[in-house]
Structure formats: C-alpha cells, structure tokens
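Help! Submission page says 'invalid entity' but I think these are all valid:
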Amino acid sequence: MLAYTINRILYLIPVLFILTVVVFSFVHFLPGDVIDVLGGQEGVFDPAVRQALQQEYGLDKPLYVQYLVWLNRVLHGNFGTSLVTRRPIAIEFFQRIPATVYLALVSTAISLMIAVPLGTMAAVKRHTVVDYAAQVLSLVGISIPEFWFALLCVLFFALYLGWLPSSEYYSPLDHFGLSLKHMILPAAALGIRQAAITTRLTRSTMLDEVQKEYVDTARSLGLPERRVIYRYTLRNAMIPTITISGLQLAQLLGGTVVVETIFAWPGVGRTLFEAIISRDFPVIQAGVLILGIAVVVMNLLVDLLYRVLNPRVRLA
Amino acid sequence: MAKTVLLPDELVDVEVHVPTLTLYVQRFWDGLHNAARELYKSKTALIGALMLLVLLLLCLLTPYIARYDPIKQNYRELLQTPSAKHYFGTDRYGRDIWSRILWGGRRLLLISVLAVLVGLLVGIPLGTLSGYYGRWIDAFTMRVVDAWLAFPGILVYLLLATLVREWKLAGVWNDLALIFALGANQIPRLARLVRGTVLAEKEKEYVEACRAIGESSLYIPLREILPNCVSPVIVQATVSLGSTLLVIAALSFLGLGSPPPTPDWGSDLNLSRDHMESRPLIAIFPGLAISYAVLAFNLFGDGLRDILDPRMTDR
Amino acid sequence: MHQATQASESELSRRAFLAATGGILTGAAAFGVMAQAGAAQRHPTRGGTLRFATRADISGLDLHRNIIYLVSMPLAAINQGLLDLDARSEPVPGVAAAWEATPDLQRYTFQLRQGVLFHNGREVDAAAVKWNFARMQDAKIAHPLTRSALENVQEVEVVDKYTVRCHLHTPSAAFPADVVYYPCALMAPDSADRADLHPIGCGPFKFAKWDRNNITELVRFENYFETDAEGNSLPYLDALLGRPKREDRVRLTALRTGEADLIDSMAYADAADFATKYAGKFQTWEVPTLATSFILFNLEKGPFTDKQVRLAAAHAIDHEAINQAVFHGRGEVARGFYAPASPWHAQGVEAWPPYDPDKARFLLRQARAVGTEVALQALPTPPYMQQTAELVQAMWAEVGFKVRFNLYDEVALNQNRRERTFHADSTAASYRWDPDGWFSRQILSTAPATRANSGFRNERADRLIAEARRTAERQKRLELYAAIDSLVNAELPLLYLYHLTLLEAGSMRLKGYQPSVSGAFSIRGGGIRTAWME
C-alpha cells in the first residue's frame, strides 16, 4: 500500500509536467495574444508598438524558451504576474481558490445531506411513493441544463420568495453568517444536481447491500431493523458513494464556470476560463497546474480509499 | 458450429464450442430478443425507451412536421406566444420555435451520438489494454488519463473551433469540431470505467480457465472479457449522451456555442434568458427539450442497468 | 467572458471629446460650483454607502494602462483630469480652472486651480501634469486609447507651478475634449511604482480595495476640490461599493431584492417596461446616447470593395426591425454618429440608402455578385452585438448574399481586423466628447484604426475632417460634420444602425443622482458626486 502510494505520488510529477506542456502549447496555438486584449478594440495596429509590447511581455521568444522560463520561475516559487492585471498570481489566482473550495465543499455537503437520507429511504422503502419521488426528482435534477437551473433558482428563491440573496461572495473568515447566507443559493444550484447523481448511487448501492446474505443473517438473529440498516448496510453502501462524491468534488473544483458567472462568484473556474479567453498565460499555467494537482490528488485519495475499504479489489 | 478437438491426454472426442462469427451474431440476436423481453421487467427502461422512440420519430419526421424554415426570421411576429400557427410560439427574431426545436434536435442528437461513439472507440480499447496487460502499460495509460481528466476540456473545443474558423471551413466542420472535443472529454472516463471492469473480471475463474486452455493473450480480453464489461459501458454511454447535451448548452452560455443561426437548443435557451420573466412560455421550450432528451437517456440507461445486471432480481 | 465584456466596453470608449463651447475659452469658468436642479430640491445628507452593481469590471488598476470606462466601472470615480464633464457630456473645467488657445489653435494654456490634491496628499501642479502626459504617451505603458488622445501633443511646457502649456503638432479645436479625465486621468507621480496595486488619482473618491469580479471599494476623498452651491465639499457619499454582476437577470434581481442600490444597465427586454412596472418602487434614469452601433465594411478585401455591393447591403437592412427585435424600441435609429439628445447632433445629414430589398437584389444582380460569400463577425457580448448581427445576416441572406457569420472572442476579432480577413463587422463605438474623436479615427484615411477597420480612403472626407478640426466656431463645425456624415452615408465605409441607450435604475433612497446623457456617472455638479442615500 505504501509503495503504491509513493509510486502514485512520484507519477504526479510527470503527469503535471505533461499537463502544463500540453496546455501551454494548446493556448499558444490559439490565434492572437494578450496584447489584443490589452488594447481592446482600439487595438494595437502599429506593428512597431506591437513588437515593443511583445518584447515587454516576453512573448517574442520561442515557445520552448517561454515555457522553460516559466518552469524555472515556478520551481523557485514565483508564479509570475498576470499579463492582464499585472498583479501577482498570488492575488489573481491563489486568492480565488478559497471561494471555489468553499463553494465545492458546501455544495458537496448539501448534496450528501439530501442524497444519503433520500437514497436510503428510497432503497429501504422500495416501490413506495418515497422511492418513486426520489427517482423522479433525481432524474429531473440531472436533466436540467446548469445555467438554466441556476437562473431559475435565482428567480425563484431570491426574487419571488426573497429567502436568499442572489449573488456576491463574502469570505467566511470575515463574516461567517453572511458568507453562508450568500453561499447557499449557488451551492444549492450545484449541490442539487450533484445530489441527484448521488441519490441514485446511494439508492442502488443500498439496494445491493440489502440483498446480501449478512442482512438476512442479521435479521434472523433478531436485530432491530434500524440497526441493521444504519449500522451495517449504510456503512457498506457509503463506500462507493463517498468515493464518487470525492471524484465529483475534484471535478467541481475546475468545473464551476457557469455557476460562478451567474452568481458573480470570484472563483477559479471563471478566472481560468477568462484567462484562456484573454490568453493570460501565467494565470492559465498556474491554474492548470493547481487544478491538475487537485484533481490528480483527489483521484489518488479516492483510489486509495476505495482500495482500503473494499478488500476485494487489491492492488494490481 | 462445433469443432472437434483432440485432447492429448484422454484421446476422447470432445465437442468444444469455439465461438465463430456466426455464433457471435446468433448470440447477439438472441441477446436482443432477451433484452426486449427484459425491457418489460423494468419500468424505467420502458419509459426511457418510449421517450427515446418519440424523440427518434420526431427526428425522422422533422422535414414533414416542422412547418417553417428554422432560420427564417419574421419581424412582424416577434416573441409570439404559442398558437395554432406557431405551436411553441416565436423567438425574438420571429423564428418558429417548434421548427427550431425539431431541426435542432436532429443535429444535436446526431452530434451527441457521434461524440459518445468517438469516446467509445478510443476509450474502450484504451481501458481494456490498460486493465488487462497491467504493469507499466497500465501505469502509463492511467497517468495519461489522470492528466486528461484534469485538462480543461474547454481548451480542446476552443482550439478545434478556432482552427475551423482559421481554415475558413464552415457548416459541418463546426459540428465535427464539437463532436471531437466532446468525444475527447468522454474518453478518460470511459477508459477508467472499462479498465476497472476488466481488472475485476481478470481475477475471475473463467479467465484462468482460458489461459489454461492456451488461448492467446490478445484473444482473452477481446473475446472473453469484453462482452462481460458491456453492461456498465452501455449504461455509462447512455448517461454520457445526456451529459454531452448539457455540455453543449453550457458552451452556448459561455459564448462558445455553434455559430448562429444554426438551430441549437443550447443557443436558443441562451437567447431566451432575457425573456424568462416576460415571456416564460416561450423561454421554457428549449430548456424543456434538453431536459426531456437527457431525461430519456438517463431513464433508459437506468433501466438498462437494471436489466443487464444479473444480480438484480426484482427492481 | 468577462474580458470580452470589459474590453468591448473599452472598445466602446474610444476617445470622444467635445469642445465645451467651441472656440477660444477665455476668462474664468465657474469654480466647480454648480447647483444641479434635482439636488437642490432636498437637503443632502452626508454619509451613506452606495452599492453599485455593474455589468463589467475593470481589468487592471493602472489608470493609464487600462481603460476605466466611466459608465460602468465604479473605479472611474477616483479619476479626475485637466478637464471634467458636465451633464451634457461636454468638457468643462476640472483641475484646470480655465484654458485658452492661441488663434491658430496650436497652443493651449491651462490654468490649474491651486490646492488640488491627489489622494496621497501631493499637490496637482504643472509638473505632475507634465509627468502624467509623458507617461500617457509612452507606447509601452499607456492604453492605445489614452495614448491616441495625446497623439497630437508635441510638447508639454511647465510655464509656472500652476500653468501648463501644450504645443500641438497640428491645430485642433478638439484638444480640450482630449484632456477630459476620460481617458486622460491624472495620477500621482510618486505612485507609479504601485500603479497596478493601489492607484492614486485626484477624483472625488479614493481607492480602498479591488477584488476582481467581486468588489471595488472606494471611500470619499475628503480633500476633493469641488463643492456644491452652498459651499459644502463634494461628494456626500461616504463610500461606493462596486459589484460586478455580468448576468442581466442577476443584476436586476439584486436591485429588486435590495442588494444593490443602483444598477448601470438592464436587458433591453426588461428596460422596455421597467419604468412603468416599477414606478414608485424604483427610480430610473435614461441614458439617451450611450453609443452608436454600426456595421463596419472592409473596403480593402472582399465583396464590399465594390460600392454597388455595399449599397445593396445597405438597402437590405431594415433598421426598424432591428429596433424592435434587438432593442425593443428603446433608443433610436442612427442617421449619423450623434443622437438627437447629444449637443453635437447635426441637422441636415443625408440619409443612408433606405430599406428596399428589391433594389438590393437588383443592385446585387447588376454587380454580378449574387451569392457572394460574406464573412460577418461580431463579439458575443454585449448581447446586442450578436443579436444585431444575426438580424443583419438574415436580411442579407434574403437579398442574395451568402453570409458566414461567426462570433469571435476579442483576441480573434482583433486578429481578423489586423489581417483583414473579415468582410463585415457588427460593432459599436461609444460616445465621443468631440466629433473629431470619432471622425479622425474611423473615417480619416490615415488613422490607424481606419486602416485596420474599414480601410476607407476618401479625399473629401479627409479634407473636411481636417478643416473641422481647425475651425473654432461651433456652428461651422456642426455643418462640416453634417457634411462628413452625409458622405459616410453615401460612400458607406460603415452603416450606422442605432443609437444605444441605457436604463439605469436605483432604489428610492438614492437622491441627487443623474448620470450625464452619455452615461458618465461622475460629472461636475452631478452624478454620484451630488448623490446621497436617505
């Protein structure tokens, strides 16, 4: 197990390397560069000025040189400055990570809070109203386009019902209550869709578990039903649920552009997307690197967790 | 077809059924029959199948039931509510929404199916090889898949879409760019899934048996293991069909959708954002269309899983 | 798509400068003491924080490097320059209390007020102005828009501590409009090293914090020089919080739920009936002349090099249809660059070819160009650019063009322009304080923007533009610009489509606020300077 873990961690390095090189190349193959963005549509039409600016930003050097310069800086801990805002990446990117992480965590929490009880009840009370309701709701939940659902949430909960604020981000470190209040709607918009997937998963794994022999054994031993369900089956069923939630969380870290745009949430998904659109290379590289690490580490943790909890699948 | 094999030790004629192509086809056909029967067992699969059938019918009949040209604008009939003339009303340019949904549906469903096919065509071999041969092939492939999963899929699409424009290609090439980008997104997930299943199957007894008989190491994964992995892959494929539709909608929201005036449910939904409150009846249709299609795929996928999983008795 | 949004706003912000009264301005102008009609009705109270939700956010803090659009970017409240703007978007005295030009319009002397301070306490004197202008002319630092505003400046002379003299390359009656605080904002010379982190201007508000796509925090600058009619110093507000919310629905929702006190715009579909639906619940302010949208033709490459084809394209456009479908009837069809609400609206402009699809088809057949492929491009945001282009595409397809329409992000769009690979572009330009700011950039054949965009080359237009530039008298200038617009409508390097408007809306508690006709929210004796929260 330990060897496996170390192995995987060591593999992290070439993976990240490949990732950054590939992304770097991709973005450079896209036409145009950040100078077009800086000048707006006023544009920089004078070739002499263009060249001067390219030199200023180091964009005139050959690609591999640019990449190596970046790599060198990163290895010394300097991620550079954004080409657009000219502020350090620490501000432009790293400071946005908490916003997305909070959002991802809260939405996963919401998702589990909805999905686990609902899925369990649906499995336990099979073929009843609860079961069908759970199935229908979860199917609907995964069928609606994300931005539409988010807008509907805003209109419904913020405008018509007036229960929750519609946008804006506050750091929980500054003002916990306010932060949570503003986080609920975007987290719910994400979490409900996650919940739909997780409900189905929970339901199906619970159904699997309930069919197993040990459940019959436990029942015939006279153990109360509640105990059978909650002590034994639920625990086992949670294994795949948690692992999938972990994977979802990892995906969420980079995939929140839509929700962040709608709810005016200053997170990394949107930052990375806008950086790609404006060819802001330092931000893109930093973003892909950090998100790459996050996703790969999450995958690793999930894999390890799965192997630990499921003795049947041993290390290959 | 039976082939007689002489087992050296026992010198007895034993009939061993070695699967040939005909037998394979026979098996497949029988499987379909079984599937049709099984369909009745799962209500979800039935409903899903019916919904898909309706979708398919609408797609096929589009040239006959779409009453207007989906890209023809009409400035005298802007934003009309549903009526006998325009079943779903008109959008902000006066285009008939019913026609747009139908033509858009054809295109989008084709794109999704092709995208998932791309994912399957690359993902399945990748996952199988990785899972079966193990060791360094597995390690290498899985690391590539890891990186792939962490890759911002939007970049692929941007690049392909930009290339299409750069090279002044139009029409179908835009759609091809979309198909490949979406397919590329699916590959890592499918590969991981297949690999997982192959890994699990690999440990089972029948594989051991095959090896004992002396079947080649290329034959085993292809002919023996893969058919058993089909069910989770099919389920994932149907789910992927749904999710590609949702991704297309998200791309339109981000301003990266298909070039106008291509009928596209995502673009239409995006366009109707302004009118969500003033004309909810019109704004709702593209969203409903997407939800319906994704729901159909998911229901069907659910039902399929129920049917194909031998462990399930009465779900 | 924040970048595209913000930069398209900056695209909308090519310098637009109006000479205040045209001609030589002698004598002292009022010392920033102006009683705004609305503000005089109630007694303003000091204090209060205004939460301003806008569509766009700035992309950088350096006042020279970035365009800080004074319609939709709250950071513009920290800016002030030699000249200020009034409610009619005309240049009026700002830091410069008075100015005069030599009769040949080639030397301008500005008299600075004494005691005007930057936010860090340093005084705004002639040396500071000279430093600023030098920085704004540096190609490696300044935004192209800012730099082009001072292109004509040959030398900046410090006559004495409070007198600055600008020597121009060519005579220009439009120069005062060039030195309005947008885009030529003055920043403190000793703040240059932290320009990207903490900008120091000399406007009514001070920079406190910027968290990109989240919040812009500004606080009142206590030593701002402008005062109201009773001598109280402006602004009244304690603080200004800018909240960028890109999504129209969400911004409007924020207003309606009370999370925002003022929003800079709303979707046209909502604007059509907002004022009536919410009368009494929310206030609204019309911005009648925000910008002008137009179709730009590429006259150098492609089908539109042929004037017949351009005429055909123009005849195919139904301006009223665009009015209804895209703008829901808000605003008006553009027959020239300036809308009727603008002080520079000229009478007697000859119209562009009227809507006549049959004539269009006929012309196209005559030019043997039926079925010609046209590459039309547009930005996806703001939405009206794409929507207008979609309508244009359909209209052109109807008369026989084969239109290939593509949405490009800003970078790709600019590249297409540079490489001249587009044929038509659906775009817009924001208000210019002086017509010269528009015509000498997009119509004058030698202008870099013209060369990169339409490639228009018309001797008569060049002559008229040069003449209008040199002319001091306002009425004469108006006539000249009318003639130029008539020429534009005849030769069609671009086809004017529409005058864009905005509907700003705010809570009933916001008093004393009125944006200028072009949307600027920080204006002399008005806007957020005289606004207060009850």
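Support: the input was valid. A stray whitespace character was the problem, and the output above is from the cleaned input. Residues 45-308 of chain B form a domain with the MetI-like fold fold (CATH 1.10.3720.10).
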